[in-house]
Amino acid sequence: MTQLTFARAINAGLRKSLENDSKVVLLGEDIGALGGVFRVTDGLQKDFGTHRVVDTPLAESAIVGTAVGLAYRGYRPVVEIQFDGFIYPAFDQIVSQVAKLHYRTRGAVRMPITIRVPFGGGIGSPEHHSESPEAYFTHTSGLRVVTVANPQDAYTVIQQAIGCDDPVLYFEPKRRYHDKGEVDESVDPRSALPMDKARVLTDGSDVTLVAYGPLVKTALDAASAAADEGISIEVIDLRSLSPVDYEPVVASVRKTGRLVVTHEAAQSGGLGAEVAASITERCFYHLEAAPVRVTGFDIPYPYSKLEMHHLPGLDRILDGVDRALGRPNSLSGLEG
Amino acid sequence: MSTDETGPGGAQTPEIAGNPGGTGPDLLQLITPSGERISHPEFDFWVRDITDDQLCSLFEDMTVIRRIDVEATALQRQGELALWPPLLGQEAAQIGSGRALRADDFVFSSYRENGVAYCRGVDLTDLLRVWRGNASGGWDPYGINMATPQIIIGAQTLHATGYAMGIQNDGADAVAVTYFGDGATSEGDVNEAMVFAASFQAPVVFFCTNNHWAISEPVRLQSHIQLADRATGFGIPNLRVDGNDVLAVMAATRLALDRARRGGGPTFIEAVSYRMGPHTTADDPTRYRDANELEDWAAKDPISRLAGLLDRKGILTADLQEQVKAKADAVASEMRRGCTTMPEPQPMDVFKHVYSTPNSWLERQQDHYARYLASFGDPAGAVSEKGAR
C-alpha cells in the first residue's frame, strides 16, 4: 500500500496499461514533455517514447477521430481531453463514430477507446474548464461512462477501462486530483470490483444518498454530519454512470424508503432524473417520499466567485435529506 | 460549363481565383475526351506497364460498375431499396484509383464509392444491405480492407489518418486511402485530418472527387481556390487530375501510394469529375442544375473516352463489347437476386452488437422486449403500426 494522489494513481494505472499491452497508445494535447496540464501523464512519454505517448496538434475532433482509425488498426487508444468544456468539438466523433462503429459493422470492428475527461468544478477556473457533460454521453448507446471517487478506483478503473473492448468515457474529478489515498498497486484489475458496479460506502437506515465522482467526498461528509443529528444515511458511489448498477440502489431504497441523488451537472435531463425515475419504477411501493435531486442549477457554469453556490455542498445535500425525510427544509410549505 | 457565376442570394460572386470548378490546363490528363492518348513526361511512367488487355479490363470494370449503379437505381425505383447514391459519371475516378490499391491498403470512403468497393471484392449483396435497411453495415471491413462507408461528411478522413498512424507504428508499408467529395473539404474534420496527416507524415492518400455538387451547393460556394490548392496550406503535396480519365487517375494514385509507402507522407488528389445523376435517389437536380452543364460533361464521359482510345488502338471489337456487356448483365442480375432474396432481420437483432461486453441496461430492455413479443402469437404482429390487439 502506498499513499497516492488521484493524479498519481491514474498515472500509475496508465503506466501499467502501457507496460502490459504494446497496443495501448496515449494521444492528447500537452501529454508528452509537459505531462499533461494536470501532470496525469507525467513521465510516460519519456519512458515509453513519442509513438506510445503522442503529443497531438490542438484539434479535439482529430484526437478522437484518429483514435478511431487506430482502433480499426487494432490499437487501444487512450485519449486525453484537456478539459470538460473542450469535448464538444469532438462530440460527433464520440457519439456518431466511436459509439456506433461496433453496431454499424455488426460486431466486426471494436472500438476499445478510452476517453479521459477531467471534469467538474471547484478549482476557480475560467469558463469551459469546470463542466459536467456526462449526461450527453450517458444518453448515447454504445458508450460506457465511468467516474472515480478515490485513488484506488482511479488506479484500477483506468486499467479496466483500457482493457474493455467497448469505448469508455473516464471522467476524472479534477478538484480531487491532489487528494491522497491508499493505493494497492498489486491489485489485479481483472479481479477487482468491475467498473460497472456501484459500491455502498456507508451502512444507513434512514436515507439512501447516491453520488459519484467529486461529490462522493461531499456526500460522505454530509452523512457524517447527519449522523451527529441522529440521521442514518447510506451513501452509494455509483462509479458507473452508463450503465448504472441499480441493484445496490434498489436494495438500499427498499430498506430506507428514501432517495437523494446529487451531482454537479445541471438538473434537467441529468443523470439524477434518470436514477430517480428508474428507482421510482422499481421501488414505488417502498418509497416513503418522492426522490430528491440536489444538483447544479440549469445555468451555464458560473464564474468562479459564485461557483460554490452552484455546486452542491454539504449543507445543500443535507437540505435535500431533510426534504426526503419531511423535516423542516428550505422548500417546506412550497406546493407544486 | 455553366457561365452562371451568381452566388448565394443571387449576388454576383467576387472574381474567383483559381476557378475551383474548372478544368483548366493544369489538369493532369493522359486520354483526351475524344479518346486520344497524350503523353506526359512525368506521369506516363506510372502507367507504363498497362497493357492493352489491362485497358480492356479497366473498360470492363467501368462498364460493370455503371451497370451496377443503373440496376441499384432501378431497384430503388421499384421499392426494393430505400435509397441509393448514384456514381454515374465517376467511374474513372473510382476504378482508376481502386485498381491502383494493394490488398493490404485500407479504404475509408464516403457512401458513393461503390465502384471502389467493387474493386475491393465486395459481395454485391453486401453492397445493398444498408440501402435496403437490413443492416447498419454491409460487410466485415477486415474482409475487404474497406471500412463501412461513412455518411457523416468527412468524418472518415480522420479515421484514415489514424489508421495510417497505426501503419506507421507497425512499421508496415501499407497505405490508408480516404475518399470524400468537394463538399467535405469545407468540414472541420477534413481540415483537422490534413493537419494531423502532415504533422505525423502519415501514409494516407486524400482522394477528393470533385463532382462539382454537394447536393445542391456548387463547388464555387465551397471554395474560392482550386480544391487541390487547399492541401498546400497544410504542407501536403497535391495532384489535380482529370477524374474522367482512368489512366490519369491511376497514375496519380500510384504516385501518391508510392510516396506514402516510401515514408513520404500524405498526398492530396483532386479528381475533377462530375456527378451526372442526383445526389441520391431522393434528390432532384433539375431544380438547381443547368441542362447545358450536364451536356458539357456528358461529352467528357469516362467510359466513352476509354472506348475511344480502345477504338483508336483497334481493340474495341464487337466481341469485346459483347463480352463486357454480358459480364455487366450477369453481375447486375446476381446483385438483383441477392437483393430480393436477402433474409429479413429478426426482431431481437435490433439489440445485437451495441456493446461487445454485457450491459445491464440493455440486457433489461432486451429481456422486457422479448417477453413483450412472446405475449403475441405472431411476433411480427407486435410491430405493425396498426397493432395486433
Describe the structure.
- The complex is a heterodimer of chains A (336) and B (389).
- Chain A is of the alpha/beta class and 336 residues long.
- Chain A starts with a strand and ends in an 11-residue tail after the last helix.
- In chain A, helix 1 packs parallel to helix 7, helix 3 (60-72) runs parallel beside helix 4 (91-98) and helix 8 crosses helix 12.
- Chain A contains twelve helices and 14 strands.
- Chain A has a seven-stranded mixed β-sheet with strand order 3-2-4-5-7-6-12, sandwiched between helices. In chain A, strands 9-11-10-13-14 form a five-stranded mixed β-sheet, with helices on both faces.
- In chain A, helix 10 links the parallel strand 13 and strand 14 (292-296).
- With 389 residues, chain B is of the alpha/beta class.
- Chain B is built from 14 helices and seven strands.
- Chain B has helices at residues 52-77, 91-98, 114-120, 124-132, 141-144, 155-170, 188-200, 219-222, 227-232, 246-261, 291-298, 302-312, 318-340, 360-374, and strands at residues 106-108, 176-181, 204-210, 213-214, 217-218, 238-242, 267-272.
- In chain B, the strands form two sheets. Chain B has a five-stranded parallel β-sheet, sandwiched between helices.
- Chain B is globular and about 75 Å long.
- Residues 1-19 of chain B have low confidence and may be disordered.
- Classes of the chains: A alpha/beta (336), B alpha/beta (389).
